[in-house]
């Protein structure tokens, strides 16, 4: 443990905590400093000028990262008959109806994203207390309650991520792995920021993107120059 903290201090000493960095510069520093034994995730934190306690200031949505996430996403689908077959053919990992309900109620959640056909929501609604706190409840606004299950499964598998502002007005999201080429991380970063800026709620007043930072799983945070991040 001491060795790890010494390493963390060494990494932190290579970063000027107060300096505002350009996005490309920050990506370069994070890739250079990512020295964990696993492929670290590159994460972005955006501090927004919103109060999510007000419904008209909630920022939430999905965005497809053009270069993928670098993660294997397991997808669960609540569907019956032809739609269940469609989901399986599209690559869903777990497909079912009452049987899947019982599995989840029994404490086994073997998926990272959950999709349901509209007719299954009466069933899925019973799992609100289980799926809700984990952010897994299907939602029509996020495209996870749909008759087009094949497209939803492919999107979830192909780099689609969900973002949601937390109580403190911050959005956290991974944009790929440290092993990604710098230009791929930049493309994913731009896609995320563009989606968040477009999702600016009408109730938000003043500066929207107040602060931004980037970090790797085990590395120190790097402050970004907000002027470069978004002009909103």
Automatic annotation (TrEMBL):
UniProt cross-references to CDD domains, sorted A to Z: Ribosomal_L1
InterPro entries reported for this sequence: Ribosom_uL1_bac-type, Ribosomal_uL1, Ribosomal_uL1-like, Ribosomal_uL1/biogenesis, Ribosomal_uL1_3-a/b-sand, Ribosomal_uL1_CS
Record-level GO cellular component terms: ribosome
Keywords assigned: Repressor, Ribonucleoprotein, Ribosomal protein, RNA-binding, rRNA-binding, Translation regulation, tRNA-binding
NCBIfam families referenced in this protein's UniProt entry, alphabetically: rplA_bact
Assembly and interaction partners: Part of the 50S ribosomal subunit.
Matches recorded under HAMAP family: Ribosomal_uL1_B (MF_01318_B)
Function: Protein L1 is also a translational repressor protein, it controls the translation of the L11 operon by binding to its mRNA.
The protein's name: Large ribosomal subunit protein uL1
Organism of origin: Sphingomonas jejuensis
């Amino acid at each position: 443990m001491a060795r790890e903290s010494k390493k963390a201090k060494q990494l932190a000493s290579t970063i000027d905590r107060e300096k505002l960095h350009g996005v490309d510069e920050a990506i370069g520093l994070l890739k250079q400093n990512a020295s964990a034994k696993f492929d670290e995730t590159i994460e972005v934190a955006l501090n927004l000028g919103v109060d999510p306690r007000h419904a008209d200031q909630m920022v939430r949505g999905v965005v497809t990262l053009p270069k993928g996430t670098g993660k294997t996403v397991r997808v669960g689908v609540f569907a019956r008959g032809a739609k269940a077959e469609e989901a399986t053919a599209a690559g869903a990992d777990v497909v079912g109806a009452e049987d899947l309900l019982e599995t989840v109620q029994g404490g086994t959640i073997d998926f990272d994203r959950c999709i349901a056909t509209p007719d299954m929501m009466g069933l899925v609604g019973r799992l609100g207390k289980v799926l809700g706190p984990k952010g897994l409840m299907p939602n029509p606004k996020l495209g996870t309650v749909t008759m087009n299950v094949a497209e939803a499964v492919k999107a979830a598998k192909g780099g689609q991520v969900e973002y949601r502002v937390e109580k403190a007005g911050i959005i956290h999201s991974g944009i790929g792995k440290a092993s990604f080429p710098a230009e791929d991380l930049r493309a994913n970063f731009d896609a995320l920021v563009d989606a968040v800026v477009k999702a600016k709620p009408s109730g938000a007043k003043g500066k929207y993107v107040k602060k931004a930072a980037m970090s790797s799983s085990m590395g120190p945070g790097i402050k970004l120059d907000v002027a470069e991040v978004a002009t909103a």
